[in-house]
Amino acid sequence: MKTWTPKHGYTNSTTNEPVKGTSSVVRKAKKVAYRLSPKKWEEADRRQAELGWYPGHEIPEDPLRWGESFPQAAKTTLANTQMRRNLGYATTKIRSKRGTRVEEMPDWEGLRQSLSNIKRNVLANWTDLLEEFERNVTARGGMVHWARDAKEANTIILGLLREKEAKQVVKVKSMATQETNLNEFMHEHGIDIRETDLAEMIVQLSKDMPSHVVVPAIHRNRSEVKEIFEKRMEDPGKLTDEPRVLAMAARAELRKRFLSAKIAVSGANVGVAETGTVGIYESEGNGRMCLTLPNTLITLMGIEKLVPKYEDLEVLSQLLPRSATGERMNPYTSFWTGVTENDGPQEFHIILMDNGRTRVLEDPVGREALKCIRCGACMNICPVYQHASGHAYNSVYPGPIGAILTPQLLGATDHNDPAATLPFASSLCGACFDACPAAIDIPSILVHLRHKYYEANRGGIPDVWEVGMKAANKLMGSGKGMALAGKAVKPLRFLAGPKRYIGHIPAPIVKNWTFVRNVPAAPAQSFREWWKEHESLHDAEGEAAAQVTHQCHCGKRAGAAGAQQDEALPDEARRAKVRRQAVAPARAAAASGREEKTAEAE
To answer: What CATH number belongs to 360-457?
Structure first.
């Protein structure tokens, strides 16, 4: 398996030896050979038949960056029609529920702006709020740890578990722990850590990667889940693909672990600086079990998850459930502040993790991504995500938010870095901005990151795109230039044929664009030419209409009798008369012009 690092490029993850790059010609030849090789297809079919489900993605060493670039990975995921059907069904359903709940809120846009302002306040006063949060957690019996990166966060958690001699741990769904690859790290050190969220449990049992921040197993259907449970669960019992049967099997499996586990690990949706409170929003109750039954609770939280005051939870609690799952409120909303004697965990640790977030803060435009509350609304609305799936992004943060967050967390701008291509995984339609409850202007950040990418890789010699864009800028900034361009493309009308559009053009610059888009044929007569031909008529009609209008406003009529007759007419007839008077001089002038042209021709 290959991994990529800025220092060494692609390396073999087992031997750490560098992997030589291959030319595009060689890569294409290998791809063709794969498709034409019956043995390869037979092996893929055999593996899928053996498992009973699509194998998915192997768990990588770096959850933020793995595999190929987005365009290459998307070609693979687009071929998985079953996954695309699963995604289409699930995202459509969630989007519909969200739309219903949003329509109920008369002040939805006001709430969005409020959350945006709250988060901007956090970014502007980050250091002070983090220190305030630490003081309040400590004052209420909790212990605060600081982690600069994923490795340090995992090491801290491992140290805490070893102090307790823990061998089994239950875990609440957490994107922060996915970001650090905590599960794999613990398994390598002999600790059995089990996901208790149903979707995360499916992903863990199938040895797969999540493809959505809220619904990690959104790429699976219930038939696949049944197969996964039957082959990977310790005692699945008799299963069908009915959702209730599958849920009850998961419940029976997890109940034993809830009652026996002494330590739980969780993430956090929010931390309140004013009180030291930590909160989780969830829909299954597994989080509540993990937050109350074990004696020790360890929470990993990204440092951007803060809000300044407890009253800010009012805004978040209205926006997050509606945006994430289409619910008015989550069935289980849990807040805890430090340690309470004889109530819940008697030992509470929270790790505040940076892992690239302060790097994101340095960018005045890109820092808006830190306002994200991980609701997944942008993914559910994004046409690129719905077709390519979350696995095409090769990061635990897929979709539009992943396209702006992952490259910034990693500082990825090198053209060889697969994460650097993520800002281009968008059509810039703007639907994600409209759906985002924190009002993150994702399209603008995507354009900003694309600019940074090109600035970092442009080199000394301008490439064809840079030259082309500069030429287009000059052309489109000039009226005469646009007129000349319109005349220049007229000869290409013959390429369009009777359908009046141009399909794929195998030319070096335009082939990628026209491969998936039809270009309308140039019109036989441009608007400028049409206007010039009819300019005299328009001017005459305009002057006549202005004159009549002026006369009407001034009350100048051709005699009292005419005025009385006009007033006696119905409104529609009176307006028709005014129109006839307005266009009569213009028509006369046009007729005179035609007669003159005829006389000259004769």
So the answer is: 1.10.1060.10
